[in-house]
Amino acid sequence: MNIRQWLLLAALPLGFGCKSPALKAAPQPTPSAAASSLSTNAPFLRIARPRTNITELQVAVRQFIPSDHAQPIVYLAGVSHVGESNYYARLQKLLDAQDLVLFEGVTDRASRAAGRKVFDNSKEELGSLQNTMAESLGLAFQLEAIDYERTNFRNSDLTIEQIAQLIAKQAPAGGKPSKTAQEFQKLLDMMQGDSLIGALVGAGMKLIGSNPKLQALMKLAMIEILGRFKGDMSQFEGLPPEWKRLIEILLRARNEVVLKDLQAELQKRSPAKRIAIFYGAAHMEDLQRHLVQEMHYRPIGEQWFPAFSVDLQKAQVTDAELGFVQSLVDYQMKMLEQRE
């Protein structure tokens, strides 16, 4: 697997995607001295080891208050698209307690026009590879674990057609698709399993799922990879130019949509009092900068949600195997960042 494919597989659970009975209000992120001093590029992902035998990926939900106290509280709720079922249950409680949830949901134009919030058939649509990944790792898939039919949920994202139009603008004269457009089509084919690499990755994930030891090592590798993503991935020097442009569109252009929707809500005579932006964790650092620098919000609290974990002792992962996984991830990250 080359570096581009490795990045794609690693980034899928971060944000390149995508009825429970009434629940009691969830505990909200609590203010703390540490939270009040968070910088505008504070990460939303971290690797935690709550016990010596447990390694887990944690994702932040961060609470922001405005300089104008008449404006609503905003929560940036980062999410991993694959995780343990209790992780999504906790997120659902928190989201249900908000007045408005602006969520990530790439659809086609027909689905959006019909008022469908997300793809009705997520296994066969954009989430195919992510769903396979979740099942193979014994995890849940976000589109199946979160109830998007809540009355306070509002889709705030681009459609597939809009993303394709943004990419098409970069095409050279003569009508030939740009390299960015070609990579975007490969991404769609891979996620839907309609390409050779997508089929191979899907088959590999199913093989991993059949072996508990391999399953644990794959989850451990994903925790180590995802927990180290910091900042703007489009700025990695080890990426080819077309991938940098593609990531910029998949992250920043979609962030512009949700920020525009947030601004429109803030300008209402009676805006929602508590608003959550529910997007993949890869989007969050950019959203945080805009919220703080342009909209004059500041963080006052945060809560870290364990997305998924590995019990090293139960999975019989040795110190040597753990060291090998960590060294491999270090090497790949250096390749991405072009560090000596």
Structural class estimated from helices and strands: alpha/beta
Mean pLDDT across residues: 83
Distinct helical segment count: 13
User: Radius of gyration, rounded?
Assistant: 20 Å
Order of helices and strands: HEHEEEEHEHHEHEHHHHHEHEH
**How large a portion of the residues is in β-strands, by DSSP E?**
15-25%
Which shape, going by the Cα principal axes? globular
The N- to C-terminal Cα distance equals 21 Å
Biggest beta-sheet profile: 8 strands, mixed
Question: What would your notes on this structure say?
Answer:
This protein has one domain. It contains 13 helices and ten strands. The chain has 340 residues and is of the alpha/beta class. Helices cover 45% and strands 17% of the residues. Helix 5 runs parallel beside helix 9, helix 8 crosses helix 11 and helix 11 crosses helix 12. The strands form two sheets. Strands 1, 2, 3, 4, 6, 8, 9 and 10 form an eight-stranded mixed sheet that branches. A two-stranded antiparallel ribbon has the order 5-7. The two termini are 21 Å apart. A hairpin with a 6-residue loop joins strand 3 and strand 4.
